[in-house]
Amino acid sequence: MAADTVDVLILDLLEWIGPRSRPYAEVIEAWRTSCPRLPVWEEANRRGFVDRRHRPGSPASVAVSALGRAHLLSRRAG
Question: What does the pLDDT read at residue 37?
Answer without folding.
Answer: 74
